[in-house]
């Protein structure tokens, strides 16, 4: 074979500048005289046998034979049949020189034995003499000079695809995935450009890209913030895949300004979405110096809570149960600690949260108001690293540990609280002997098998314990587990398979001096399986489609007596349900100015047995006296089915490169509800599944907004208006008893709601002074009307919800004095939330009774708060054991005694109003952060 190689090398030198792009093999028919029996042999041995039987000499390079399977049977076959089968699925072609009985193997390309007429300027078609096949508009041969690219970071020449005479085109599709070669994480927003041809593409969040390249020789460049620029030569013989593994940029700069997604707020089709990086909470002064990505979210327009220290978020006038909060694809039912003051997420393991207040991506469903999609970091695959903090209340630590270099890693995070002293310092004597503690832990494993497949698995657990009185110990916990497998199915298609399980439970341990000790328990559990496929159909269509299934299991509550207790045991019947969805979405580029995001989702739901359900008399109020029949359902039997189609459409129209108008509409179903008669969210609120008597909630929302960037994207401005309508939302009857009630449907009402508002956001990301100003004007109103007085609230008229706050202002500012010192400020103002006041008393049968106003007719005083902070970076020396960051903050600098609630007592024959506050004085804190 040495002589064969020498002959081939001489031939390569002679024709490499004029041949080798499109395949047009010129092989005449051969006699069927090749017979080879399957046996273990090397490619060299196989071709030696072919030479012996056919009389042809073969010319090739040994390194091309790595993926050739030569262990095959051939019986009385022609040389062309053998070679076509042998090279099927590879990038090898061949050329037969008949007169000299020689066959040349070719990598990717083919050999021309004459130049096409188009090469000399004629418009005639390329003609293959041997086969007499005309290839219309075929590209001319490629002439490649090895010294063409002169670059400090020149990468090896890449040949893509295998030339095929039957599919000659002027352009081919190149697709692939870009990853950071140190961490293994995908690189979003990587710019891929073709030199001198005005062609470009951008990678998506998963690092995937698709670009159309002219046939033949191209030079492509890549660039992204924090990633080293690269340049490489690519010869396109056909469509194919090129995965990019790129290094980080290590240049030392005076200042780094991150401009990724700088114009995404203007260019994206989706409306009412926000993204918050966990690092953004680093400099924002919050209570007790704790980083809190959910608290930062409340500083954005349209997002608020019922009050300071209240669990849950209210988005655009929706209830707290109308938010889908997900951590790595699994639902987390209560993402807060300590009555909502702290988040139940380790800030050092959390990467970011994507918030959708309008038409959410079509894969999400089951909630009316919003989606909070929280992502955990992938671990460092190069070396062990970590981050932590020590504060006045908690200690946090997160470690990133590589398992296999450049392939797999694990992230481990843990937090613990020593918070009892806070309760003792609150302005409430009844809390002075209370105690509270919490902890949470998370583990995430990430493994990248290759450029086309990766898996991640997350496990999370949190636990809270608190005692508000001396006889009761409350506890609640979250647990979740999820697995996600992302894989590429083809050059244009990838899939994501996720499985998750979530559990939330709470309990009360009651011990008293009498014989009435007991334990109360409640739990909700759900499991979900989802498969999503993403297809880049072409430059104008990007498709998302798939299906999901979810199983709910609810323990509505049980009481177990303890010791010699006289308390009777109670065990409410378990609830079960199935929920599923089929979804399809398309991001459709109509023109350079008009972009549409359309989606359809069909939801179906069924409550399941084993269960007992009551039916009630027609034309009578629903109570225990009007029970008509009791129906019993066997295990797995369907009780009641609900469902229907959901539509989602968003449109963006560019009025200018930095100015757009967007509009959206969506409708949605929600099959799960919270039961609460507290003014604010409580950890012991229970979840209720839709069944025979409680219908699912339905919602409709329309949004219109304008988005503008100023001064080279230094400023972002958005103005959005929305209108939302809700049907069959749940509320409680006056005096309702919701906990451990077997017939809870007799204590609740279902009515309608509406919410509308205008949201303003001005954001500045560049310069020494940065931050944002947001203002929201909004109304949230509910209406419960029925045929009977007990089914009406406020005479069946619309009334403000508990979280109706017409005016909401937030100002976040950070001023960088030097590279190490900065100052930060957080100011918030909100209209006082509604409240129900007593308006009079009357005496009946020698007893005094209080007359209350219509529900939520009055308001508590307005809320405002100013927080200040000083941030001190450690020195920036490279060779240090750890880099430090110190925050000194004062929460509620003005000492504003903002009311948490207002309640009423009767003293000396008079009804008096009392106010309870969470933090009525300035709260200083100092937190030490370190990173290694």
Structure notes:
One of its GO terms (biological process) is siderophore transmembrane transport. It comes from Flagellimonas sediminis. It contains six helices and 59 strands. The radius of gyration is 34 Å and the shape is elongated. The strands form 14 sheets. It has a 22-stranded antiparallel β-barrel. Strands 8-14-13-10-11 form a five-stranded mixed β-sheet, with no helix packed on it. The chain has a five-stranded mixed β-sheet with strand order 17-24-25-20-21. With 932 residues, the protein is mainly β. The chain folds into three domains: 2-118, Phage tail protein beta-alpha-beta fold (3-Layer(bab) Sandwich), CATH 3.55.50; 154-246, Immunoglobulin-like; 266-931, TonB-dependent receptor, beta-barrel domain (Maltoporin, Chain A), CATH 2.40.170.20. The protein starts with a helix and ends with a strand.
What's the story with the biggest beta sheet? 22 strands, antiparallel, barrel
- Helix count, DSSP H or I runs of 4 or more residues: 6
* Beta strand %: over 45%
Determine the mean pLDDT: 82
Low-pLDDT sequence parts:
1-31, 122-137, 147-152, 251-260
Topology:
Layout: H1 2-15, E1 34-36, H2 43-54, E2 57-59, E3 74-77, H3 79-87, E4 92-97, E5 102-107, E6 126-128, E7 133-135, E8 154-160, E9 171-180, E10 191-194, E11 199-202, E12 208-214, E13 216-224, E14 227-236, E15 240-241, E16 244-246, H4 264-267, E17 273-277, H5 293-297, E18 303-304, E19 314-315, E20 323-327, E21 330-331, E22 336-337, E23 342-343, E24 350-356, E25 370-376, E26 385-390, E27 394-404, E28 408-417, H6 420-425, E29 435-450, E30 453-469, E31 472-488, E32 493-510, E33 518-538, E34 541-561, E35 570-571, E36 575-589, E37 594-608, E38 611-616, E39 627-633, E40 638-656, E41 659-670, E42 672-675, E43 686-689, E44 697-710, E45 715-732, E46 748-764, E47 769-783, E48 799-800, E49 807-816, E50 821-830, E51 834-835, E52 838-844, E53 847-852, E54 858-859, E55 863-873, E56 883-891, E57 901-907, E58 910-916, E59 923-931
Parallel strand pairs: 2-5, 8-14, 9-15, 9-16, 20-25
Antiparallel strand pairs: 1-3, 4-5, 6-7, 9-12, 10-11, 10-13, 13-14, 17-24, 18-19, 20-21, 22-23, 24-25, 26-27, 26-59, 27-28, 28-29, 29-30, 30-31, 31-32, 32-33, 33-34, 34-35, 34-36, 36-37, 37-40, 38-39, 40-41, 41-44, 42-43, 44-45, 45-46, 46-47, 47-48, 47-49, 49-50, 50-55, 51-54, 52-53, 55-56, 56-59, ...
């Amino acid at each position: 074979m040495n002589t064969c190689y020498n002959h081939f090398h001489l031939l390569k030198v002679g024709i490499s500048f004029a041949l080798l792009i499109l395949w047009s093999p010129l092989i005449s028919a051969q006699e069927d005289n090749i017979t080879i029996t399957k046996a273990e042999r090397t490619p060299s041995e196989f071709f030696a046998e072919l030479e012996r039987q056919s009389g042809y000499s073969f010319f090739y390079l040994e390194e091309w034979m790595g993926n050739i399977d030569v262990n095959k049977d051939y019986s009385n076959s022609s040389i062309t049949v053998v070679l076509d089968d042998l090279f099927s699925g590879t990038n090898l072609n061949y050329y037969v020189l008949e007169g000299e009985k020689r066959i040349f193997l070719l990598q990717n390309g083919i050999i021309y034995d004459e130049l096409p007429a188009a090469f000399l300027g004629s418009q005639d078609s390329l003609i293959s003499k041997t086969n007499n096949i005309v290839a219309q508009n075929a590209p001319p041969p490629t002439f490649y000079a090895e010294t063409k690219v002169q670059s400090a970071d020149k990468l090896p020449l890449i040949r893509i695809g295998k030339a095929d005479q039957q599919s000659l085109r002027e352009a081919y599709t190149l697709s692939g995935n870009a990853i950071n070669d140190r961490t293994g994480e995908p690189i979003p927003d990587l710019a891929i450009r073709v030199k001198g041809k005005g062609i470009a593409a951008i990678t998506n969040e998963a690092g995937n890209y698709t670009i159309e390249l002219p046939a033949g020789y191209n030079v492509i460049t890549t660039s992204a913030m924090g990633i080293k620029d690269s340049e490489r030569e690519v010869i396109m013989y056909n469509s194919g895949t090129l995965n990019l593994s790129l290094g980080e940029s290590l240049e030392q700069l005076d200042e780094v300004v991150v401009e990724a997604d700088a114009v995404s707020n203007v260019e994206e089709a989706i409306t009412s979405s926000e993204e918050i990086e966990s690092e953004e909470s680093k400099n924002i002064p919050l209570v007790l110096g704790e980083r809190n990505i959910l608290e930062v979210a409340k500083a954005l327009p349209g997002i608020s809570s019922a009050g300071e220290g209240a669990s849950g978020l209210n988005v655009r006038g929706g209830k707290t149960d109308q938010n889908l909060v997900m951590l790595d694809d699994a639902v987390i039912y209560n993402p807060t600690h300590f009555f909502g003051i702290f988040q139940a997420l380790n800030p050092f393991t959390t990467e970011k949260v994507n918030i959708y207040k309008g038409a959410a991506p079509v894969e999400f469903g089951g909630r009316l108001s919003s989606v909070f999609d929280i992502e955990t970091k992938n671990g460092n695959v190069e070396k062990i690293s970590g981050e932590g903090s020590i504060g006045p209340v908690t200690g946090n630590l997160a470690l990133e540990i590589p398992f296999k270099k450049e392939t797999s890693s694990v992230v481990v995070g843990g937090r613990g609280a020593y918070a009892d002293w806070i309760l003792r310092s609150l302005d409430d004597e009844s809390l002075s002997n209370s105690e509270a503690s919490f902890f949470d832990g998370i583990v995430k494993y990430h493994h990248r098998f290759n450029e086309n497949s990766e898996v991640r698995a997350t496990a999370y657990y949190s636990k809270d314990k608190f005692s508000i009185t001396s006889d009761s110990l409350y506890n609640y916990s979250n647990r979740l587990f999820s697995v996600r497998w992302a894989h590429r199915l083809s050059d244009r298609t990838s899939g994501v398979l996720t499985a998750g399980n979530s559990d939330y439970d709470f309990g009360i341990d009651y011990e008293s001096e009498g014989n009435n000790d007991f334990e109360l328990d409640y739990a909700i559990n759900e499991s979900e399986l989802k498969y999503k496929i993403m297809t880049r159909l072409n430059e104008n269509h990007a498709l998302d489609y798939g299906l999901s299934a979810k199983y709910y299991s609810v323990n509505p509550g049980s009481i177990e007596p303890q010791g010699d207790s006289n308390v009777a045991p109670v065990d409410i019947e378990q609830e079960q349900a199935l929920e599923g969805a089929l979804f399809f979405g398309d991001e459709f580029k109509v023109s350079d100015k008009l972009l549409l995001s359309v989606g359809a989702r069909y939801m179906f739901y069924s409550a399941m047995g084993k269960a007992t359900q009551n039916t009630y008399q027609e034309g009578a109020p629903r109570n225990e006296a009007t029970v008509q029949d009791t129906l019993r359902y066997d295990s797995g039997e369907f009780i009641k089915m609900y469902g229907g189609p959901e539509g989602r459409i968003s449109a963006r129209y560019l009025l200018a490169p930095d100015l757009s108008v967007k509009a959206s509409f969506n409708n949605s179903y929600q099959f799960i509800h919270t039961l609460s008669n507290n003014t604010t969210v409580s950890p012991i609120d229970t979840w209720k599944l839709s069944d025979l008597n409680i219908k699912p909630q339905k919602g409709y929302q329309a949004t219109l907004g304008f988005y503008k960037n100023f001064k080279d994207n230094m400023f972002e401005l958005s103005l959005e208006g929305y209108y939302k309508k809700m049907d069959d939302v749940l509320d409680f009857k006056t005096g309702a008893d919701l906990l451990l009630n077997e017939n809870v449907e007799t204590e609740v009402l279902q009515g309608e709601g509406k919410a509308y508002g205008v949201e303003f956001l001005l954001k500045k990301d560049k310069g020494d002074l940065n931050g944002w100003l947001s203002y929201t004007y909004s109304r949230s109103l509910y209406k419960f009307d029925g045929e009977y007085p007990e089914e009406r609230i406020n005479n069946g008229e619309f009334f403000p919800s508990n979280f109706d706050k017409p005016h909401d202002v937030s100002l976040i500012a950070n001023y960088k004095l030097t590279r190490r010192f900065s100052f930060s400020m957080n100011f918030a103002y909100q209209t006082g939330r509604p409240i129900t006041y007593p308006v009079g008393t009357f005496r009946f049968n020698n007893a005094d009774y209080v007359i209350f106003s219509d529900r939520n007719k009055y308001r508590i005083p307005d809320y405002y708060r100013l927080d200040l902070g000083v941030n001190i970076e450690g020195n920036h020396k490279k060779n240090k054991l750890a880099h430090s960051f110190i925050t000194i903050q004062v929460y509620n600098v003005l000492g504003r005694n903002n009311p948490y609630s207002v309640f009423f007592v009767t003293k000396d024959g008079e009804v008096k109003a009392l106010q309870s506050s969470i933090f009525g004085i300035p709260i200083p804190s100092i937190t030490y952060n370190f990173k290694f």
